[in-house]
Specification:
This protein is 39% helix and 13% strand. It has 61 helices and 46 strands. A 7-stranded antiparallel sheet has the order 25-24-23-22-28-27-26, covered by helices on one side. It has a 7-stranded antiparallel sheet with strand order 43-42-41-40-46-45-44, covered by helices on one side. Strands 32-33-39-37-38-36 form a 6-stranded mixed sheet, sandwiched between helices. It starts with a strand and ends with a helix.
């Protein structure tokens, strides 16, 4: 029972303390005046009566009523019902004025009313919340006062204060009023009669409790309905109102905010609404209770409370809205406006997803039932929502249902750790979240951590207590909730049922409504102030008498015992079942569990090989929870008497599985896996030595969970619960089974029965507790206490096991740990235990060991102490016991450290775990290991093929070793995945190609520790991501890095592999400085002399498309001189004498230099003679100048250069100074048809520009050096122009723009085809803007040259919008316009009607073509103006900087070989490729090259004069020659092109490749790679024009950075000569295996195998290629992306061959297995196998088959080239016979294909590595019959390739040839080559260098000849024959006449074939 009202207070306006505008209230009277003992009077009531402040008002306001809530220090809530009315009083201001006789007002200008009204409040203070009853009672008192009823106020108030009502009621109804106070009863007796009610018969008690009718003695009567169960909140209709005011979503936000402890503020202008809203929010939180600040109405004076840091629910009048605006972390709900404002910084966690949706749906069905049927065609007649009171209960039912779903099964996660003297219960949060699969859920985590939930557990945890609706819901209706989840209507029915129960609880008697309360009479004069008397002071004695009387009666009354309905609280269904049916558990198929079980069985049966195979599958399966539980159960079965001794390998596997299991457990251990493993890690062990045992715990310490205090607490409580349960089970003699050690976890996994028992047992014990005697009670308390104490000791031991690292001296990691600091209870820390247990300790600071280990000890002791304090205090351990524990813990830790030291010592002695054998790599001849293999793991990078992500097996990660040799970095190992464990994985790259190395730390999935690793990137597009195995010491890894750096960046180029190969000492020879100069001097002295000799001896190849020089076609002289270059004899005399003293090897070098200086090529092109005087060959326009023979004019140019005949050497020296690096213009190629020449030079020095293009009328300051130089430059240009034949023909002068003119008339029809193309091209590479700054006008017409931009278009403001052209830049043309009409026109050779952006046609017709175009750097050509009479024109372009190339390449590598896989859309391969802009750069270079080709082809010469003349210039010049001249598209020609343009003309290979320490900082810039990529693009578009395959280009791309050959080392010929490496003597080569030149190597390889040969090669005569250069036409080169993991890069051919032979040898079985046929099939994995080898193209396969058949038949094998040539010859013959080109012949020979681009032919796949004719390799895949015994080994198959010739030979032998005029007959070795269609001759058979070539195309006839003068003696006449060509007649003599006949027939057959 409880008092209805504790205090009655009258509060009035305080006139005395009135100051300023704010008044104050004070308590006029209060009853009772003495505080109740159980309930002191709350302070500060006067503030809450007028929350807006006490103020006088000019007009009377209506009485108001609201309820404030005050919370006292014991968290008890007091409800203060305030009834306020206004009383008139004379204006105190006026009174004051009269008193002081001052007439003026205090507030001037304000008319003061004579009477003002002051508020007065009647306040009831109660601990019960009966708002309506309070309203009625206070209203009655006011009515009695106002209407002056005859009842004394004291009586009413006395009755009110003595009224006692039950807190909660039963179930019966008593219709008659129990307690009525009538007036007839004398006043004194009224109380007695009231008390008489309580002395009624006991049977009536229950009935009374639910219904109490009270009267206050003023003729009133009201029924108080008390709730049946007071644990359920009473809400009236406040919840419904709250939802009406704010809406569903807003209230849900507030609900979640309140549960997750945010600050909530309600605003409204109505006080009662504020109270209702706050009450409603609390009501929907049931069963949780709000335990923070709760102030439904906050007075204005206390607003600073809002800035408190703790959560709150507070209501404030809207009057103070402005003050609430600056609150940054408060959620504000405006009840009047219906809004909820959530600040930005506040994140509210919402309900987990399906629940949130279901709750919203249910709420909308309650609040708006019409929503569902709004769309129905025939809506029901009425679907009104329920009445507000019912609706209120329905909403609360929804929230009750919601909590039922959130908390179901919570009782299964309770640990009861003490039963007596009273239950102590803890909630296992982690297990609850884990079993609900909601560990990630923010909302639930916060709720479970919150204060409300802690209260919930302490209130509802005890197993023996009264139950309520929520307990029933959790216990009995979970199943129903689960089934109804999907059907909203069933949910609604359930909610309606719950709502009914709630309503019944609140209104047990809805029928009874006996309210009879007077209200004040509404008389007309009611508001008349004169009628209203002031509320009188009450007689406190009378009231007190009432109270005393009642109190006395209560004392004498017998005590009212209400039987407590305690009972056992049911737990409901266990969690696991529910969750499993939900399907939240990760799908773990039975198969996976089977795998786990099998593996463990194998381990314990010692079938290690089987276990090893299953291991990876098991580790994968252990990601799932079911498999982890299965593992723990299986392991449990192998533990006998708490111990399981294993051998080393078993131990290792078990530990690995435990680690893997723990790795995926979070630090919370929500699935209880760590908990189940905890006893196991102390059970499994291995014997290390005498009496020394290592337990599994020393190897699984690396996990976060062991350092999480909450985990240990939960574990401890779980164990304590089991022991206490066991204690009572034994005591009761009941079941004796104590839960086994393994089942200490409280989830379904550990068996549900046990937990059920614990709570039931506790409930039973609690019931029996009162019946026990004192001794029994204390005995039980003591037993429980000692149980807890013994567990605490046990746990101190366990914790020391898992927290102390095996090597206690290793404290490096502990310093960072959270163990020592009190704050981070649940923080984790890492100990280096595994590293300690597996590897040796490499640190030797033994002096500090004691100090360090004591640090470890201290931190562990502190951690355990904290744990013990917490759990012992919570579970009521006595202080003595606690002290004892504190003294024990350091001893426990110390003891454990000592045992660990012994274990650690012994574990070091263990033999290392059996790991895969390290495979040795195959090394090249001369390659040596620098560091032997270190065990590493190769981690997968961003390329997905090898990891099996795109299907196929996971080849990576792999375990193996990294080897560092003098040449390469090699990883060789086997995949971790046992499915492919037999395969070998190899990744390697040349050490010289390393571009970036960075340290990484890697966590391997198998073992948990983090490892040091390295990520190594190479410019051969390879990435090695390695993690060092734990057996590799960290300092070894460091040594490895140092060695790697030393090898990557040697001090000098002689430290590179190409030089050190084969020198075991690896010593670098220092060169003496004086030698350098001597060698150069000697060289220059001898240069010209030997040049004459060499060139005289050597016949230069002359192709059929190089006609003789145009000046003297018919001159006999030239025919006779064909064999030599005329060399003038006017040299200084010294050279002659010197030459005789030079050693022969030096002379050899001289002739080599002349040959190297590309004289062969110059002569092939008809480019000049070696002469200082103009005497002999004035008609030759060019000469070979020796001005640079000492490399004095230009260090980076070759020794011999082609310059105009008319320019003397002295001029050249002066001109060279104008150019950067002295690289003056020299001729490098001449078009054989138009005789236009291609020149190359560097850009001009800035000072030279102005001189060069000086305006004729500019004032000059006298004749300066610059002037004369510029004149000489002009002369130089003029000399070049005058060398062109078209210079003399006026008809040939066309303008540049004129190429697009439709009215062109020239006689040359082929020109007509080409002209339109060039116009369009020019338009492409130049903008359409007429006036571009920085260009030069030419001629009187002022035609402007356009700008070609070779870099990103930096468009200036002026030129941003070119008026009619789309070609702002080269880049723009490729990227921005996908298709442009001009391109089409260029391709179809048609005219565009109006050229896009070009000037008008009439203008074009008058302009003239320049004879020389200078492609110059835009930035170099500023400010000059051209002379109108000069015949050259400058085309300024922007050059792409080497920095751009460098950065672009870096991005390209990252795109092609990403370091880690990413799913970001911005990081896809194509996106990264685009961002690298590599394709743009290719596009620019190709575009300029095509333009130059077009210009040369139309007869204009071009000079490329860019940057320093050695990067872009070289690229453009080489590409132009490749596109224009078919010779360069053959093996010999391409080699010559690279040697001439790249090596001789000084491309800085060493510098750009960062090959030495000096160039390290400059970084790697792949200019040559870019060139090769361009060639690859052209090759793709014209596959029939190249003699070499794509593989040839890849081979060069790989080896130009590999430093295996010396070819691409050093920056110029000068440096090469200085080092003496330009020409090695052929005989000097000691080791024939070591090729120093890449070209020799290619030659040798090409003889053995068609790997470099392009089967589609069938060139057209004089074909000039014009590739498309748009980005859409370019393809990514597969060199960047392909990988062969089986053998590594295929560019070191011997390695690949040897590797294949070894593999074959392994594959041959010992005994032939006759029983089962072996499958001929072979799986090909794209990133593992070399596809071109395993699946070769048709021709390669046929050649291989031929060779294997020859070997089988025992025939001498034929060379592949001969076979190929024969087939081609046969095809030609067949095609001739049939007189129509057959398809086959066109496929192979397709010279008669008429496509404009012959790429449309049938395209054979490129023959890659596999083109070797390797027979044994394809033994198992070939379809031949059964193998023949005694097969020759592969090495013998190659014996036929030992000869040294480098060509295709159809017929060969010795012939005597008569020399030119006055020359003797000489024997020569002649070779007839049908493929190249030529007759070559050599000095001897062994000689490699061809001395001359007779093109068969030029041969007119072969006829028998006659002996002439000087012919060989003793040879019959018939042995002579003559060969007549278009130029001259050759006389030959064979050894005898049959031989001669044979030769004539062979030549004749070749001619007829053609």
């Amino acid at each position: 029972m409880a008092r209805l009202a504790d205090y009655f207070v009258v509060v009035g306006y305080d006139l005395d303390k009135r100051g300023g505008s704010e008044g104050q209230g004070h308590i006029l009277q209060r009853f009772p005046e003495k505080d109740w003992e159980d309930n002191p009077f709350p302070q500060g009531i006067e503030l809450f009566c007028q929350p807006n402040g006490w103020q006088l008002v000019p007009e009377r306001e209506r009485p108001s009523f609201f309820v404030s809530v005050l919370t006292d220090i014991n968290s008890e809530r007091h409800y203060c019902a305030c009834f306020t009315f206004w009383e008139g009083l004379d204006n105190p201001q006026l009174q004051k004025a009269e008193a002081s006789e001052v007439d003026e007002d205090e507030v001037p200008g304000l008319v003061q009313p004579a009477q003002v009204f002051a508020p007065k409040s009647l306040v009831l203070v109660s601990r019960l919340d009966h708002t309506e009853v309070f309203r009625n009672c206070l209203g009655l008192i006011y009515t009695v006062h106002v209407d002056s009823l005859s009842v004394p106020l004291e009586t009413v108030i006395g009755n009110l204060l003595t009224c006692v009502i039950p807190v909660a009621g039963g179930s019966q109804i008593n219709e008659s009023p129990v307690c009525s106070l009538n007036l007839s009863v004398p006043q004194a007796l009224a109380c007695d009669w009231l008390l008489g009610c309580f002395q009624d018969q006991p049977g009536q008690e229950e009935r009374e409790e639910s219904l109490r009718t009270i009267t206050l003695g003023a003729g009133d009567r009201q029924v108080i309905q008390t709730p049946i169960n007071d644990s359920l909140p009473v809400s009236g209709s406040s919840v419904a109102h709250l939802f009406r005011q704010l809406g569903i979503v807003n209230v849900l936000y507030l609900f979640c905010a309140a549960l997750t402890e945010h600050k909530i503020l309600f605003l409204s202008s109505s006080y009662q609404r504020l109270t209702d809203a706050c009450r409603a929010l609390l009501a929907i939180m049931f069963p949780l209770k709000y335990s923070f600040t709760y102030v439904p109405i906050l007075p204005g004076k206390l607003l600073e409370v809002l800035s408190t840091p703790t959560p709150f629910i507070i209501g404030v009048n809207s009057f103070f809205r402005s003050e609430t605006q600056e609150l940054l972390d408060v959620i504000i709900a405006d009840l009047d406006g219906g809004t909820v404002t959530i600040p930005e910084c506040v994140h509210i966690s919402l309900l987990p997803d399906p629940l949130l949706q279901q709750t919203q749906t249910a709420l909308s069905m309650v609040l708006d039932p019409e929503l569902e049927i709004a769309d129905h065609a025939f809506p029901p007649s009425s679907t009104q929502p329920s009445t507000l009171k019912i609706q209120d209960k329905e909403i609360r039912a929804v929230f009750l249902w919601l909590f039922g779903q959130l908390f179901h099964g919570y009782r299964w996660c309770l640990h009861i750790i003490r039963i007596h003297p009273e239950p102590v219960i803890r909630f296992h949060k982690a297990a609850f979240l884990g079993q609900r699969a909601l560990t990630e859920d923010d909302f639930l985590m916060k709720v479970l951590d919150g204060m409300a939930f802690a209260g919930f557990i302490s209130e509802r945890g005890p197993p023996y207590r009264p139950t309520d609706l929520f307990d029933d819901l959790i216990a009995n209706q979970v199943e129903r909730i689960r089934q109804e989840e999907c059907s909203p209507h069933k949910v609604m029915n359930h909610i309606k049922e719950l709502a009914e129960q709630l309503f019944k609880n609140e209104n047990p008697y809805p029928v009874v409504a006996m309210h009879k309360v007077q209200r004040p009479a509404e008389s007309p004069g009611h508001n008349d102030p004169k009628n209203l008397a002031i509320f009188p002071p009450l007689d406190d004695v009378t009231v007190q008498l009432f109270i005393d009387h009642a109190a006395a009666k209560l004392k004498t009354a017998p005590p009212m015992v209400r039987a407590e309905l305690n009972g056992m609280v049911p737990s409901g269904p266990p969690l696991g079942d529910i969750v499993d049916r939900h399907g939240h558990v990760l799908a773990n198929s039975a198969r996976r569990l089977e795998v786990v079980r099998n593996c463990i069985t194998y381990i314990f049966d010692n079938k290690m090989l089987e276990a090893k195979k299953l291991m990876p599958a098991v580790l994968r399966a252990l990601k799932g929870r079911a498999a982890r539980v299965c593992l723990t159960q299986e392991l449990n079965q192998h533990v006998l008497q708490n111990r399981a001794v294993l051998d080393d390998q078993q131990f290792d596997y078990i530990v690995r599985m435990m680690n893997c299991t723990l790795q995926d457990c979070s630090h919370m251990d929500e699935h209880g896996i760590a908990a189940i493993l905890l006893p196991l890690v102390t059970a499994f062990c291995r014997k290390l030595g005498a009496g020394i045992t290592q337990f599994a715990y020393s190897c699984v310490q690396e996990h976060m969970v062991w350092t999480n205090m909450q985990f240990w607490e939960a574990m401890f409580y779980s164990d304590v619960q089991n022991h206490i349960r066991a204690l009572y089970l034994e005591a009761d003699g009941g079941e004796q089974s104590i839960a086994s050690h393994g089942q200490q976890e409280s989830g379904p996994a550990a068996g549900g029965q046990e937990l059920l028992g614990a709570l039931e047992l506790a409930s039973e014990q609690s019931r029996l507790w009162p019946t026990l005697s004192k001794e029994q009670q204390s005995e039980r308390v003591q037993k429980e206490e000692s149980t807890v104490f013994s567990q605490a000791i046990h746990y101190a031991n366990r914790m020391s096991y898992l927290l102390l690292p095996l090597d206690t001296s290793k404290n490096r990691l502990l310093n960072r740990s959270g163990i020592g600091d009190v704050e981070s209870v649940s923080n984790s820390y890492v100990t280096n235990s595994i590293a300690g247990s597996m590897a040796e300790s490499y640190d030797t600071e033994s002096g500090f060991e004691d100090a360090e280990s004591s640090d470890v000890a201290n931190s562990v002791v502190r951690f355990i102490n904290r744990f013990v304090d917490k759990v012992c205090n919570e579970s009521g351990v006595t202080n003595e016991h606690l002290k004892a524990l504190h003294t024990m813990i350091p001893d426990i830790v110390q003891m454990h450290i000592e045992t660990l030291d012994a274990v650690h010592r012994e574990s070091k002695r263990l033999p290392p775990i059996q790991k895969p054998k390290l495979l040795r790599p195959i090394l090249l001849a001369g390659e040596e290991l620098v560091m032997d293999g270190m065990r590493v793991h190769l981690i997968s990078d961003g390329r997905e093929e090898a990891t099996g992500a795109l299907g196929g097996p996971a080849l990576l990660p792999a375990e193996g070793a990294i080897f560092l040799t003098t040449y390469r970095l090699i990883f060789k190992g086997t995949p971790n995945d046992p499915l492919v464990g037999e395969q070998v994985v190899t990744r390697s790259f040349p050490i010289a190609s390393l571009t970036k190395e960075k340290r990484i730390s890697v966590s391997l999935s198998m073992d948990q520790f983090i490892q040091e690793g390295l990520q190594l990137r190479s410019c051969t597009f390879q990435l090695l991501k390695i993690a060092f195995d734990e057996e590799v010491a960290s300092d070894l890894a460091e040594v490895f890095r140092k060695h790697m750096h030393k090898l990557r960046y040697p001090q000098h180029v002689q430290g590179t592999f190409a030089f050190t190969v084969g020198q075991s000492g690896k010593t670098l020879v220092e060169h003496k400085t004086k030698d350098k100069n001597q060698s150069i001097k000697t060289l220059s002295k001898n240069l010209v002399k030997s040049a004459k000799r060499t060139i005289g001896r050597q016949y230069v190849t002359r192709k059929k498309y190089s006609p003789p020089t145009w000046e003297n076609r018919s001159s006999l002289q030239s025919e006779l001189d064909e064999d030599e270059i005329s060399v003038s004899e006017e040299l200084d005399q010294g050279s002659l004498t010197l030459s005789s003293t030079i050693r022969s090897s030096d002379r050899q070098t001289m002739s080599n230099v002349v040959e190297r200086a590309c004289c062969r090529d110059y002569q092939r092109l008809g480019l000049g003679t070696l002469s200082n005087s103009l005497t002999r060959s004035k008609n030759e326009p060019f000469r070979i100048s020796t001005v640079n023979r000492m490399y004095t004019v230009c260090r980076s140019y070759p020794g011999l250069l082609i310059v105009p005949q008319s320019i003397p050497d002295s001029t050249i020296q002066r001109i060279s100074r104008c150019y950067r690096q002295n690289r003056f213009p020299v001729v490098c190629w001449r078009n054989s048809r138009t005789k236009a020449v291609l020149l190359r030079s560097a850009g001009l020095h800035a000072k030279g520009v102005v001189g060069f293009f000086k305006s004729p009328n500019a004032p000059s300051a006298g004749p300066s050096q610059a002037d004369s130089t510029s004149l000489e430059q002009e002369k130089y240009m003029q000399a070049i122009i005058s060398s062109m034949p078209s210079y003399c023909e006026p008809s040939g002068r066309n303008t540049l723009g004129g190429f697009t003119s439709t009215h062109m008339s020239t006689s040359d029809s082929s020109d007509k085809l080409r002209q339109p193309k060039i116009g369009a091209l020019m338009k492409q590479v130049m903008g359409g803007k007429e006036d571009v700054p920085g260009t030069f006008s030419r001629g009187a017409l002022g035609q402007r040259a356009r700008v070609i931009s070779l870099s990103q278009p930096r468009v200036s403001g002026k030129a941003r919008n070119p008026p009619g052209g789309k070609w702002g830049s080269i880049r723009g043309s490729g990227r921005l316009s996908a298709y442009n009409p001009e391109v089409g026109n260029r391709l179809s050779s048609k005219e565009s009607p109006q050229p896009n952006g070009g000037p008008s046609e009439a203008l074009f017709l008058r302009q003239q073509r320049a004879y020389l175009y200078i492609i110059g750097d835009k930035t170099q050509l500023k400010g000059g103006k051209q002379d109108s009479f000069q015949q050259w024109e400058v085309v300024p372009i922007e050059v792409c900087d080497v920095r751009q190339v460098k950065n672009s390449f870096k991005k390209l590598i990252k795109a092609c070989v990403p370091s880690s896989a990413t799913s970001e859309p911005s990081m896809t391969f194509h996106r990264c490729l685009e961002e690298s802009e590599w394709m743009c750069l290719l596009h620019r270079v190709l575009q300029v090259s095509v333009l130059v080709v077009e210009l040369l082809d139309t007869g204009s010469s071009v000079m490329v004069s860019l940057e320093d003349g050695w990067d872009v210039t070289t690229q453009v010049v080489s590409l132009v020659q490749l596109l224009s001249d078919p010779y360069y598209r053959t093996f010999d020609g391409f080699r010559l092109l690279v040697e001439k343009e790249w090596l001789s003309f000084g491309h800085r290979f060493s510098h750009r490749g960062a090959q030495t320490l000096a160039s390290q900082s400059s970084g790697f810039t792949p200019v040559f790679l870019q060139f090769l990529d361009c060639v690859h693009q052209i090759h793709l578009q014209f596959p029939m024009e190249f003699e070499f395959s794509q593989y040839y280009l890849k081979f060069l791309a790989y080896h130009y950075v590999s430093n295996r050959f010396r070819t691409f080392l050093l920056d110029s010929d000068y440096e090469r000569i200085e080092l003496g490496v330009l020409y090695e003597e052929k005989g000097e080569r000691k080791n024939p295996q070591v090729c120093k030149s890449v070209w020799d190597y290619i030659d040798r390889l090409n003889k053995k195998t068609p790997i470099f040969f392009n089967y589609m090669f069938s060139p057209e005569d004089e074909e000039v290629l014009r590739p498309y250069s748009f980005i859409s036409n370019l393809k990514v080169w597969d060199f960047y992306t392909e990988e062969t993991l089986s053998e590594g890069p295929s560019y070191d051919w011997e390695l690949v061959q040897r590797g294949r032979q070894e593999r074959l040898a392994e594959e041959v079985p010992d005994k032939p297995d006759t029983t089962t046929p072996k499958s001929q099939r072979h799986i090909v994995w794209p990133c593992y196998d070399s596809r071109s080898r395993v699946v070769p193209d048709a021709i390669t396969k046929l050649l291989q088959d031929l060779q294997s058949l020859e070997a089988e038949l025992g025939l001498p094998p034929e060379k592949w080239k001969d076979t190929w040539d024969k087939i081609k010859a046969n095809q030609r013959a067949e095609a001739k016979l049939e007189n129509r080109p057959s398809f086959n012949s066109s496929l192979l020979m397709s010279s008669n294909l008429s496509h404009q681009r012959r790429s449309q032919g049938v395209y054979l796949p490129e023959s890659g590595v596999g083109s070797s004719i390797n027979l044994a390799m394809d033994r198992e895949t070939s379809t031949t019959s059964t193998p023949v015994a005694g097969r020759p080994s592969t090495s013998t198959l190659y014996s036929q390739f030992q000869s040294t010739e480098s060509e295709n030979r159809s017929f060969e032998g010795i012939l005597f040839k008569k020399g030119a005029l006055l020359k003797p007959w000489k024997p020569r070795w002649f070779v007839l080559d049908k493929t190249k269609h030529q007759l070559r001759y050599y000095e001897t058979r062994q000689d490699k260098e061809c001395k001359g070539v007779i093109e068969l195309a030029e041969v007119e006839s072969v006829i028998p000849g006659t002996p002439t003068m000087g012919a060989p003696k003793n040879i019959e006449e018939k042995a002579f024959f003559d060969l007549k060509t278009t130029k001259r007649v050759y006389n030959f003599c064979a050894q005898d006449s049959p031989n001669a006949q044979l030769w004539m027939d062979s030549i004749q057959s070749c001619l007829s074939d053609a």
